[in-house]
């Protein structure tokens, strides 16, 4: 499966962005999907995940109440809605197939840069 993330950009603190992750080559409807991020000089970290049918989501404490993950299996796409953005949210955001840890991920998207200015 190939994953194409999009929607990143420059936004002011307090603003919002919506990232999309479109999958191709294979249906993702049976898979756990996640979003990770990597800030400059830091390790990649899990942000949000969603189970195969969208019934369960999992969130890092740092984004709870601000970020939301959703999926449209008919469109083979996963979304990350980011609100109340903070400068510390600045990072390259990656979508992934498989799990909430890097060890469980079977495929990564190419990443999309989110920059939050203060």
Could you characterize what this model shows?
- The chain has 118 residues and is an all-beta fold.
- It has strands at residues 2-6, 9-12, 17-24, 33-38, 45-50, 57-59, 67-72, 77-82, 91-97, 107-108, 112-117.
- The strands form two sheets. Strands 2, 4, 5, 6, 9, 10 and 11 form a seven-stranded mixed β-sheet that branches. It has a four-stranded antiparallel β-sheet with strand order 1-3-8-7, with no helix packed on it.
- A hairpin with a 4-residue loop joins strand 7 (67-72) and strand 8.
- It is globular, with a radius of gyration of 13 Å.
- The mean pLDDT is 96.
Q: From the helix content, strand content and strand pairing, which structural class follows?
A: mainly beta
Count of beta strands:
11
Query: Which regions contain 5 or more consecutive residues with pLDDT less than 50?
Result: none
Helical content (DSSP H or I, runs of 4+): under 10%
Distance between the termini: 37 Å
**Secondary-structure element pattern, one letter each:** EEEEEEEEEEE
Shape category: globular
Radius of gyration: 13 Å
Mean pLDDT: 96
Short description:
This protein has 118 residues and is an all-beta fold.
List its salient traits.
118 residues; mainly beta; 7-stranded mixed β-sheet; 4-stranded antiparallel β-sheet; 11 strands; globular
List strands and helices in order, with pairings.
Elements: E1 2-6, E2 9-12, E3 17-24, E4 33-38, E5 45-50, E6 57-59, E7 67-72, E8 77-82, E9 91-97, E10 107-108, E11 112-117
Parallel strand pairs: 2-11
Antiparallel strand pairs: 1-3, 3-8, 4-5, 4-9, 5-6, 7-8, 9-10, 9-11
């Amino acid at each position: 499966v190939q994953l194409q993330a999009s929607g990143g950009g420059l936004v002011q603190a307090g603003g919002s962005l919506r990232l999309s992750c479109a999958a191709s080559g294979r249906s993702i409807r049976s898979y756990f999907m996640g979003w990770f991020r990597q800030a400059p000089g830091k390790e990649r970290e899990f942000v949000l995940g969603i189970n195969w049918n969208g019934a369960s989501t999992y969130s890092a404490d740092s984004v709870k109440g601000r970020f939301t993950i959703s999926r449209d299996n008919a469109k083979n796409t996963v979304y990350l809605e980011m609100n109340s953005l903070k400068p510390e949210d600045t990072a390259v955001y990656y979508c992934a197939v498989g799990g909430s840890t890097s060890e469980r991920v079977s495929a990564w998207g190419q990443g999309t840069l989110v920059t939050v200015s203060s």
